[in-house]
Amino acid sequence: MNIVITELSLILVRLLGEMYEKYVEEDEMSILKKRLRRLSRRLTGKIDPAVITSIVREDREKH
Description:
The chain is mainly α. The chain has one domain. It is built from 2 helices and no strands. It is elongated. It starts with a helix and ends with a helix.
């Protein structure tokens, strides 16, 4: 009986850890989206879209 309780406890701990990680990732993504929207509004009309495209391509090629 104790073995079953121990196994269930381990499963519960693992599931809670996975749920917490997912929550943190979603929260971080939400924060990053908000920051990106603010930055985008601030930069609208100030930076040439072709320059941004070039920078993004260079970054992707590096990774």
